[in-house]
Design a protein that fits this description.
Layout lengths: L3 E3 L16 E5 L5 H19 L3 H6 L3 H7 L1 H13 L5 E11 L4 E6 L8 E7 L3 E9 L6 E10 L2 E11 L7 H13 L3 H13 L8 E3 L2 H18 L4 E2 L8 E10 L3 E9 L7 H18 L9 E7 L11 E7 L3
Parallel strand pairs: 12-13
Antiparallel strand pairs: 1-8, 2-3, 3-6, 4-5, 5-9, 6-7, 7-8, 10-11, 11-12, 13-14
Helix pairs in contact: 5-6, 6-7
Protein name: DUF3828 domain-containing protein
């Protein structure tokens, strides 16, 4: 996951650091056509340079203050995107033009207040004329959000804020996962609810402090509630006492499969050697029954449950061999 902020002077400064002024805001089709066309040309130029690792070209579009602030981090961010995330085109999530009566004023831009995916953009405007572009590269199920905030210097637009963050997994955003978590919880599917809620947390701030969903507090509150309930109900590592080989379950994590959506990954330790795959499969049949009994809904409303078996808990320091089993559920 790429999550890196490049901004000038801590782009989200609190209002005590700002001047007092007024502003007018225009969104999408209400923006003046000439201005919108100017920014589109710059966005096209920026995106092409970003996706071809043309650091020099990207830097021609950045403001002097961002170049000063970003330093070598700009080069690294561009390189990371180039090596991990290819795209030929992008779409615009939203764009905003804000005209301020003074500089160094806080701009707060709500996309709306009632829809699930409504959000607020908040940043320090270094220029009177500001332009926000929220770009999403095409062709990926797990989407990034590229936040570009331009300021107008004389007759020239320059990027003051450049941020890349995770926007979605399998085309689902944080509020989408939150809704799925709520639905699972209503069915008493606690593990599914936790996994959906944890996915919501992973893509909750695609624009870091610049971008905040209106439902962020609800998402955080539900996650905390679910975790507290799970910690009170289950203690990990958890020995499966009803299985004669006494395997030890130590984690259940969400696994997102492209075009398939969410499935749980159950991690457990077996006393049977991971090389003895025949015996592991026999044991796993008993493990599946116990897991389904312990964790209501884990085998419902999805296509698979994944099992990853090892002879010790991975510590991240050495390679631990494992054996994987896929439980393909009945549709």
């Amino acid at each position: 996951m790429i999550r890196k902020t490049l901004s000038i002077f801590l782009a989200i400064l609190f209002l005590q650091s700002c001047n007092i002024g007024t502003s007018g805001t225009w969104k999408n089709d209400t923006i003046e056509n000439e201005k919108r066309d100017q920014i589109k040309a710059l966005n096209d130029q920026f995106f092409k340079a970003l996706m071809t690792n043309n650091v020099k070209e990207v830097k021609t579009l950045l403001s002097d203050k961002l170049l000063e602030k970003g330093g070598n981090e700009i080069d690294k961010l561009i390189g990371d995107i180039y090596t991990t995330y290819k795209a030929d085109s992008y779409r615009i999530l939203d764009e905003y033009n804000v005209e301020n009566t003074t500089t160094n004023v806080g701009n707060t831009i709500p996309s709306g207040i009632s829809k699930d995916n409504d959000y607020v953009i908040n940043y320090l405007a270094l220029n009177k004329d500001m332009y926000v572009s929220l770009l999403i590269p095409n062709g990926h199920q797990n989407e990034l959000l590229i936040t570009l905030i331009y300021g107008k210097y004389g007759d020239e637009w320059k990027i003051n804020i450049f941020h890349v963050g995770q926007y979605s997994f399998s085309k689902k955003t944080a509020p989408d996962f939150h809704k799925l978590a709520q639905e699972s919880y209503k069915k008493s599917y606690l593990i599914d609810a936790i996994n959906y809620s944890s996915m919501a947390k992973k893509c909750l701030r695609p624009g870091d402090e610049i971008f905040k969903y209106q439902k962020e507090n609800d998402i955080n509150t539900l996650y905390d509630k679910l975790m507290a309930e799970a910690n009170a109900k289950y203690t990990f590592p958890l020995t499966l006492e009803n299985v004669n080989t006494k395997p030890v379950l130590y984690s259940i994590q969400p696994q997102m499969i492209i075009d398939q959506g969410y499935s749980p990954m159950v991690w457990y330790i077996s006393k049977i050697s991971v090389q003895d795959t025949t015996a592991l499969k026999v044991e796993n049949e008993k493990v599946k029954t116990e897991v389904n009994n312990l964790f209501a809904g884990i085998n419902k409303d999805k296509k698979y449950v994944f099992y990853r078996i090892s002879n010790e808990i991975p510590d991240g320091k050495k390679l631990v061999r494992h054996f994987g089993i896929i439980d393909k559920l009945k549709e």
